């Protein structure tokens, strides 16, 4: 059994300048309480790896609004004008990555792979600076693994051993990121006794989780 | 009928029974309203679901169940949810029968540009590059011209989304099929002449014989 910590204590583990993977898709499935605590502690210079920056005031968008982020590795920023403004002003450096490639680079990072070969991006600006490898007559880009110092995971349930479940489209990048960081912090909606989650329903084995954020009070 | 509705109703006739289809954000989403009767299509959303339906009644939305645009949806009986790697395995791995995407430009080679306008609009490609590379059929649903400028051009001036030749272009004026020989004009919209289409198109069109008028689907009250 592990001890759950507060969202503020979780945010205090993350130093300025850290690289952080944050689950979520347009804010759905993002760890909102940890994000709020990071904003409150005025963290600076984060490199954030996630699908998108949602909207102003939503999910990762809150970190953008509060000036916590200096680098982004995301697939999409079109829904957040603040992100675009800060990119143009030179406050945030942005690396745009095709969504499927982002998922597979994170998976590679968490799975001990040296990268992945994908046809996505061949013949586009995405191939710039990358190795093109021909396999059975077809061109693929070598995309390198992605890892981070921290992964911030939103789950539906956790048991006392940090076994995690997810809900519907709030799953998205969360289970992939749980493999790909040196320190994994999970923020569940509910914490349940061991045995409540059937083994078949566990999507992220608790052994991957370093810290669990206590349930909202 | 406005241009977008006409396009959506023509694209809907490209849907086939028991197929997996991904609709892009915006105009392509309208296609789900015109699924022909007797056809069952499973819609995928790249944020991780197959089998979603219309938004639930007010007050019954689930904040953990949205489409790729962040809008509330419902899950139909038999729906499946999954992570982003699985979602793009479906897309890139050849399991997606069709995608319908918006377009900024398509050129004579059938190459699509739909993700950025340098210096003006840099939203990011999201899932578009994977969809164009991976879907079995790629249908571009877009208005024929923008601000008087043709969107179907000889050579892309915008950065391409992929170098794969798209399967079909549907606009409010015409249905055009990119082929190895060039852009084949397949159909014209009701009341639109071949000459009108040529005048509004920035690339050469292949015209073989009489060009028929495009059929369109009727609204489906049962559809999402």
Describe the structure using short key phrases.
heterodimer; A: Glutaconate Coenzyme A-transferase; 9-stranded mixed sheet; 3-stranded antiparallel sheet; 6 helices; 12 strands; 21% helix; B: 224 residues; alpha/beta; Glutaconate Coenzyme A-transferase; 10-stranded mixed sheet; 3-stranded mixed sheet; 4 helices; 15 strands
Characterize the structure shown:
The complex is a heterodimer of chains A (217) and B (224). Chain A is 21% helix and 29% strand. Chain A has a single domain, classed as Glutaconate Coenzyme A-transferase. In chain A, strands 1, 2, 3, 4, 5, 9, 10, 11 and 12 form a nine-stranded mixed sheet that branches. Chain A is built from six helices and twelve strands. The longest helix of chain A is centred in the middle third of the chain and has 13 residues, at 99-111. Chain A has helices spanning 7-12, 32-40, 60-65, 81-88, 99-111, 174-177; strands at 4-5, 19-22, 46-49, 69-74, 93-96, 116-118, 132-135, 138-143, 148-159, 164-165, 181-192, 211-213. Chain B contains four helices and 15 strands. In chain B, the strands form three sheets. Chain B has a ten-stranded mixed sheet. A three-stranded mixed sheet of chain B has the order 7-6-11, with no helix packed on it. The radius of gyration of chain B is 17 Å and the shape is globular. Chain B starts with a helix and ends in an 18-residue tail after the last strand. Chains A and B meet through helix 5 and helix 6 of A and helix 2 and helix 3 of B.
